[in-house]
Amino acid sequence: MGKTIKLISGDGEMFEVEEAVAFQSNIIKSLADEDNADDCIPLPRVDSQILSKVLEFCRKHANSPSVHTKFAAIPSELCPKHDGSAAGASSSESSSAHSETCRACYDAVMKLVQWDLEFVKVDLDLIHHLLKAANYLDIEDLMFMAVEGAANAIRGNNPEEIRKLFDLENDFTPEEEKEILKEYSWLDDPFEP
Amino acid sequence: MRVCRAAGEEVTAGAEEAEAEAACPIQLLPQDALHNVLGRLPLHQALACRPVSRLFLDALSSPPFLSSLPSLRLLALRHPRAASAPHPSLHAFDPDLRRWLRLPLSFLPFPSASPVTASPSLLYLWVDTAAPFPPAADASAKSQTKSLVVCNPLSGSYRLLPPLGSAWSRHGTVIAGPGGSVVIVTELAALSYAPSPDRWLKFPLSLPSKPRSPIMMSGSVFALCDVGAPWRSQWKLFYCSLADLGRAHGWAPIERHEWGDVFDIFKRPRLLAGAGGRQLLMIGGLRSSFVLDAPCSTVLILRLDLDTMEWDEAGRMPLEMYRCFGGGFSSPLEVVAAAAAGANNKVKVFGGDGKVWFSGKRVRGKLAMWEEGAGKSDGGLWSWVDGIPGYPEVILSGSYALDPVKFVEGEPALLSQ
């Protein structure tokens, strides 16, 4: 185990994780960079249940390119074929030439995305907490996937179902609701000229 | 992503309590989280969420959200009856979802509006603006003024351009330019308008003959002129940048020796803008021979790359399709028989931005469509578009985004083209 970071959740539980895992969070990374005599970072706004889920995500992403990385920019050190060691990479290939044609890299990243999509197939309550934690800790990929999870919950549902899912009240008057529905009704109008 | 609070900051007990009282988790999320979620949905789905609650409505109506939406690329018809009362609307086709939409035009406070052209993001219409003066004794004193209105049919914002005599609306070809500019071309003169100085400027047209099929692309007007004899057309391509319209030699021919007789193979060629703004499409009947009245073998689309100044063949209408339009005779007997039957096999060509549509009197209820394919030299994709109301006069191609386009006097903030 390389250098580790100690994180303290809001309810006092301690998590010790590798730097590569914890540094998925830009906030933790910048706090750890500061001179801390003891590397214990308190995270009062994240409770242990959520933090453990967040760290599960971070562990999976620790040595992978971000979902935002274009395939052409995946560094060859991260290629599964080369086993993470730069020495294994062919010296005659530039790293961009490597990733664009490297099937192993492409498959690995797509597999990760599939894992992520399963990870966010959870109830909305948990998604909310993940969204908040991802925002608070500034973990870009978790934010991206949590947003995707929330969008998936909305897709294909009508307003009433969406209200139930998000635990929202219909705070419109019937007249207001009618006006709103009218405004863009032409988008849904099955128009057969 | 905005971060609300850095870890380690002290949180007061009061704030924690207030949070616990909030109705539901989603209201505690930062505003852009909800924007991000809604932005991940397809347009129709996102808009369908407006009636969920005020929280969703506000998120969906906010300018940052609206301006992040991708544009809706639509093909709009200039349908003779659609734009007038009781429900003035624009019939538009969404080529991606392959379905028809009816965009309401009721936000325009004019008795009748006639769509005439579209830029990549704005729709232009002719409207009557003559104020109903008390009836004059002398009927001929009644002045007929028409004005162009430029609008965004999705956001409902519009702007009235300075009025013009009705002759311009009857005889001129309206061409939409970048940044809300307009050019109207007739045989002898051109009018040009730009939001600043917000007036029409008139220029004589120094072309050898009446311009055919004028279009605007990359800030210049392109047109074909017939420089041949009355019994034999000879087409030549001309262009003039917007800035040079008024100059004596603003119009210049575009020709290259290597082109040979590229124009002579066409019957009734038409120009359209190709995709990307640097390619010109020339479409017309492909002459089967140089005999004057020889029928055309099909419709040909050639593409001129303005950077390399080279022509290549973009597409050729499949024969089965061309036959539907009344063409593609395979024997002189068929030609004679068709002529005797009074066949009208004229093909009307419309489009822009790399898509071309064809309509014909013999093809009711549908249009043929050509789109550029993935590969440059693969001949493009030909298909039929069904469900066309009646016989469309003109097709305007546009791409409309939902962001609120604000027209402020003298300083319109228009969608970028």
TrEMBL record, chain B:
Protein name: F-box domain-containing protein
Coiled coil: none
InterPro entries the record matches: F-box-like_dom_sf, F-box_dom, Kelch-typ_b-propeller
Alphabetical list of Gene3D superfamilies matching this protein: Kelch-type beta propeller (2.120.10.80)
F-box domain span: 27-66
Domain of life of the source: Eukaryota
